[in-house]
Amino acid sequence: MAVVHRGSKGWMLDHLTYINKTILNCERMKSYTFRPEYFDIVKPHISSSTKTTNPLLKTKTSSTKESTEVSCSGDETISQDIQGNTACYSRKRKRKHKELNQGELDALAYHIKVRDLILEGTKCLLQSEMTKSLLPRMNASNGDHNSCLANMITGDSRLAELCELAKQVPLEDKEVEDGQSAVQVIDEETQSVPDLDPFSLVTENITNCTRIVTLMGEKYLLPPHTSFLLSDITRMHPLLNYKKFDAIVIDPPWENKSVKRSNRYSYLQSWQIKQIPIPALASPECLVATWVTNRQKHLRFVKEELYPHWAIDVVAEWYWVKITRSFEFVYPLDSPHKKPYEILILGKVKSSAYCQNREETEPIPDQQLLVSVPSKLHSHKPSLAEVLAGYIRSNAHCLELFARSLQPGWTSWGNEVLKFQHLDYFCSVEDVT
Q1: For range 326-346, the mean pLDDT
Q2: Average of pLDDT values for 255-282?
């Protein structure tokens, strides 16, 4: 299961185990598992230049409660954690002067506000006996995993390109006469899917096992009871006619300088994100969760502009905390550049309609942590399916927007929706054993 432990501060998650649980294999196909090297993160991405006690494993003392950060040398920073541990780590100089711009000041103020919550909450979850027994540490002698990463996977990168090509073809009206939405179904009797149309039809795998499909010569694994639409924001029409959703998770491609420079993937500006038709997709009182980068500009946009535009009330703010297999933050907690956490804003669609038979759900708690070892793959978020299950009705219809993988029981949409389902990200169970 994805949830290793549920505590008062949040959840410990095992992303790799969840992925492998979704790949239910039939007797007629080879058994696959997600390549473990993508989660083989043993050391922090920025190593400390001095040996210190790991603050996540050290018990709380009566030392200073405040965090300070001062210059160590020209290219280093000293970071003091709550316990008083001091460490130097390297950092790049982007400007000669030391003054922070307004965005950096806002980010620093926000970090100071949530720092103790991140540190103490993560320590609490890591020190639970259940976590220690179910999430063993991975030592460094696990084989030459990094060499495997050198073999670049190129087939899945064509998905966005295929979406652009598909836009050249006029969108046909594939509505069924009785008003049902246009869906193509993969069932037990489907022997092969050579004529798969993932661009203008919602594809459903209604079988109890994983199926392999071929798209433009590339093979992808479709977990059981999954559905998806491969398109960009200009071609969401088939999804709008599909069904109403009780939970929607959104991982927008936020605009930032790094994305602009690298040109690794496309991004949307704020006005474009507002055009996502959430009101047309959401059922009354739908739970909406949006991933946000640590830029305060984006956080304010979601809370003050985007959610009000969609008629959504903010109900909670959660944090995904990224740790190594050695139970350390993947980046120093006080790093002036990258932080070891990301933000998730949860809200509920406002509804004036009252349903007499409405199923009662648990109230959504605020200030919760999702702690896990992250994937080495860019924008490979952990699944929220098991975490959100207690806050939505049973048999709920769930949707992930800007998805890059599939989840059983969920509908996924995006122009790279099958990216991490590409067969090259998996290996046969025989190869692992």
Answers
A1: 94
A2: 81
Do residues 396 and 129 lie in contact, with contact meaning Cβ atoms separated by under 8 Å? no
74, 408 contact by CB (below 8 A): no
Please, which pLDDT band fits residue 269 given cuts at 50, 70 and 90?
Answer: very high
Beta strand extents in 174-326 (DSSP E only): 183-186, 202-205, 211-215, 218-222, 226-230, 245-250, 282-292, 312-322
> Is-contact 120 376, C-beta < 8 A?
no
What does the alpha-carbon distance between residue 424 and residue 301 come to, in Å, rounded to a whole number? 37
- Choose the most confident range, by mean pLDDT, from 60-74, 85-99, 151-165: 151-165
Confidence at residue 259, expressed as pLDDT on a 0 to 100 scale: 53
Q: Are 254 and 187 in contact (CB under 8 A)?
A: no
94-103, 273-282, 320-329: least confident range? 94-103
CA-wise closest residue to 285 among 305, 250, 306, 311: 311
**Structure-block tokens of residue 98:** 């030391």
**Dihedral of alpha carbons 276, 279, 280, 282, sign:** positive
Q: Can you give the pTM of this predicted structure? A: 0.85
| Number of CB atoms found within 10 A of residue 389's CB | 17
Distances (CA, A) of 392 to 6, 307, 359: 17, 19, 9
> Which of these, 54, 95, 149, lies nearest to 336 by C-alpha position?
95
Residue 115 has pLDDT above 70, yes or no: yes
Q: Which residues contact 44 (CB under 8 A, 6 or more apart)?
A: 324, 328, 329, 330, 331, 332
Amino acid identity, position 373: V
- Please return the burial class of 386, using the count of CB atoms within 10 Å of its CB with bins 0-12, 13-18 and 19+: middle
Q: What is the mean pLDDT of residues 360-387?
A: 94
